[in-house]
Specification:
Low-confidence stretches: none
Number of strands: 9
Mean pLDDT: 94
Bound molecules: zinc ion
Radius of gyration: 19 Å
CATH topology of the largest domain: Chitinase A, domain 3
Shape: elongated
Number of helices: 2
Structural class: mainly beta
């Protein structure tokens, strides 16, 4: 079976940046599973996997526009100390969360300032060229329930 619309694809991946540093990998974990054609994964990767079959290996190089986009400068701003819980230790690189309409929204602390901290709400991989080593593990048709939900159930997917 080949990767196409409404197929569930499971794959192992190693993600590297331009310098060859490993940013993320499924090594030692369950392969990642997603429902093809439903925007479950970044657009460039979904497009590159179209037509692949179990056992295939490929290397996928993505520009930021095909991955997490370019950083939005409007998402970098200063927040005053009073906006954080008193007991929160602020440090550069730390992840902090704000309450959003759909749950917690993550921000990265860029640096501390006299009155608070500069926060960045962009995805940590925004603006980066991404290089994936991919190994397709399994391709199967989605169940009706998975199609109704728009995501994968079972190993590597949602557990409900
Ligand atoms: Zn579901």
């Amino acid at each position: 079976m080949k990767t196409a619309l409404n197929m569930v694809v499971s794959f192992h991946y190693t993600l590297k940046d331009d310098s060859g540093e490993v940013l993320d990998s499924s090594n030692g974990r369950e392969p990642l599973s997603y429902l093809h054609g439903h925007g479950n994964i970044i657009p460039g990767l979904e497009k590159a996997l179209e037509g692949t079959a179990a056992g295939e290996r490929s290397q996928v190089d993505l520009r930021p526009e095909e991955a997490y986009g370019q950083p939005n400068p409007d998402l970098v701003f200063e927040a005053s100390r009073e906006q954080f819980p008193d007991d929160l230790q602020l440090a550069p690189g730390a992840r902090v969360y704000a309450d959003g309409p759909d749950g917690p929204v993550p921000f990265t602390v860029v640096r501390l300032t006299e009155s608070g901290a500069v926060l960045d709400g962009n995805h940590p991989l925004a603006g980066k060229q991404l290089h994936f080593d991919i190994e397709i593990v399994d391709v199967r048709p989605a169940t009706q329930e998975e199609l109704n939900h728009g995501h994968v159930h079972g190993p590597g997917g949602a557990d409900h």
